[in-house]
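Entry 0007
Protein: TetR family transcriptional regulator
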Amino acid sequence: MAVGRRAEMMEENRNKLIAAARKAFAEKGFAAASMDELTASAGLTRGALYHNFGDKRGLLAAVVAQVDGEMAQRAKEMAGAAEEGWDRLLAEGIAYIKMACEPEVQRIVLLDGPAFLGDPSGWPSQNACFNATSSTVAALIEKGVLKQVDVEAAARLLNGAALNAALWVAAAEQPDITLPKAIEAFVLMAGGLRR
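Output (structure tokens):
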């Protein structure tokens, strides 16, 4: 088999496993999802899972990275109507918090992710969000929109506030009641950075 075709097949198998795991984790949760059922639904073996991800936890990390990356992209798109700068940064944070009410996001990223992968601030997808927020914060400080504050500190606190608000909403008994409270507090807290 040619090297190029083998690489294509490996990528195809990886994508099949991620798709099957995403469906299983969303429906049953990480702990209840069976590796045998998951691999069978992808038409693959446990060996393919181990080869591509090391173990079930490695597969969860890949699924979380995919969903969290999509969340960041969707938040940008949802905030696209907001004016460039501060309004857009705030709108992205609010959009991220609102996604905590979506069952797939809730289960995979906000409940099972932290429970089985640990602190989300160390996830590569969260680091990408942090880097984007840092760039925006630096630009807003330079334009005089934000107070003179350490860029890293402000970016970490903004990202952390949005993430923790989303975690709170996802874990709430009544997310629809918790959501407006979380958004209001996020907006008020973030507003303290404005000049």
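Curator remark: The mean pLDDT is 92. Residues 138 and 148 are 10 Å apart (CA to CA).
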